[in-house]
């Protein structure tokens, strides 16, 4: 029987990769055949020939397929087998034999990784669920404070440009941060800032915004009698004083001072007439500061006239020595009161000219700086007659030239309002050039424009005012300003009405 050369497939091959095609090449002497086998054994029918290759046992089911073997017949007809991978040291078997665990991991590692990933995701979801449930329970039991009184320091970003715009949020937000850049950076790089606060909680609940008004007229003993009487008479000439139900007066900057309050105007007039300034009762040393703080505190401790929602008007000749006014401001705010002050350009003593201006700023009032003979004019211009209730109050700091986007102004009723602005927080100097307050809404636009020439034609003061008519819509506000030098100026901007809001206007820092 003739030899038949073929390939016998072992049952193990069913679980292994397909065999590669064998290549049979004759060498130059035609007596050597190079044959490549892969997991295949050679057989003969009838007479079995010598089999070249290697036998596969059951362990091969768990091992990776071996690489193709090269079989060469040498000149001595000795068959040698070469493997690409050498056998491990100390092992006389050809090739590399892997453990079952290693092969199992290599074969199923993708499935294992997927299972691990799924378990990790499940754990994350469980953790998030626990955190959310805990957070929800915390919110249900937490309490919040109604008082917002955070002071935010302004930020500054120098920009080289021809137009500068600064934005501030709406007035109902408790704190405002914004940036200001100067169109004239060679003159100044100062910042602008606004900080609004709500009325302290709980505050005085003995009155509402439509309260009966109490008016306190407080004057320094260092002023002349003429200045005091002129200011009193100017107040009495205004028909708007009929809004007040109680009238009080106090002469301060003396060792002893008494608060007098009356429900009628005649007693008010007479009390001031009988308590005019007396130099013999005043402080004899200019280093002594004003005791105006004590006068205000004494007024709030009186038990005759209602103090909730009161309006306090101060004629200041001597500066206080106190720089910190936080305790006094808290007291005034607690009673929902407003302080207006006119400060003399020629003080009789004290060291802090801006302290009472700051008190006015923080209680939604106004602060004027005037010569003594012009106190009468300031008494006329300050807003405590026909439009005593602020419905828009901000205080900003400016320097150099630029534009500030102010908080929007919204009034639920159509009507006429009064805009009052102080353009400097000190005795006026020639650093002021001009400002333009713009207000725009879908129905109208307008502006309030003031320059250095127009204010000098008044009385060289620092306070101006103008009427404003607006609709029941949101009104956009912005301010263009222009100052020379490096000085920083604190501006009070108020819009007032004779019809108070249902809620107290937020205080401004």
Overview of the molecule:
The protein is an alpha+beta fold and 509 residues long. The chain folds into 2 domains: 6-98, no CATH class; 196-508, Rossmann fold. 20% of the residues lie in helices and 27% in strands. It contains 8 helices and 23 strands. It has helices spanning 100-141, 225-237, 265-273, 292-300, 326-334, 355-362, 375-381, 452-456; strands at residues 6-8, 25-26, 33-37, 41-43, 69-73, 79-82, 165-167, 196-197, 213-220, 244-252, 260-262, 311-316, 338-344, 367-370, 389-398, 401-410, 415-422, 432-441, 444-451, 463-470, 474-483, 489-497, 507-508. The chain has a 6-stranded mixed sheet with strand order 11-10-9-12-13-14, sandwiched between helices. It has a 5-stranded mixed sheet with strand order 7-16-21-18-19. Helix 2 runs antiparallel to helix 3 and helix 2 (225-237) packs parallel to helix 7 (375-381). The longest helix is centred in the first third of the chain and has 42 residues, at 100-141. The radius of gyration is 47 Å and the shape is elongated.
Key terms:
509 residues, Rossmann fold, 2 domains, six-stranded mixed sheet, five-stranded mixed sheet, 8 helices, 27% strand
Task: Describe this structure in a few short sentences.
The chain contains eight helices and 23 strands. The chain has 509 residues and is an alpha+beta fold. The relative contact order is 0.11.
